[in-house]
Sequence to fold (137 residues):
Amino acid sequence: MLPLNKPLFYQLCRYGVVGVIATVVHFGIGYLMHEHQGWAPFWAHALGFVGGLISAYMGHYFFTFKDQRSHRSRFPRFVVSSLTALLLHQVGVYLLAHQLKLDYSTQAAPILMVCVPLATFVLAKFWVFAPERHPDN
Fold:
């Protein structure tokens, strides 16, 4: 478990702000492409996902973790962590709503909306945006 000191608390807050912005970008693009451009929901949502992914990456890179390392090494890891989050959400819905019979809207989704971002924060902090280790350390 991470000790919650002041810098970590502020980093978690920045992570949350970036996540909310990325969600709005994701939904906004999907909504605009579907409602105003006539795209099928599947493709509108897919483009929204890409927009949300890019905005989340940029926000976390520059704002949450204030990273300065190569995008070539960071972005692929970020994509993996985002796909991991999707998998955790889907498995969580299956287990909580379908197997344990928790109400999706009032129980399963809120649990997942807290647990999955916390898990992806840990992935981001200690893997995606982790400081590089030098062999002589």
In short: Residues 8-68 form one domain. The chain has two domains: 8-68, 69-129. The CA atoms of residues 33 and 112 lie 27 Å apart.
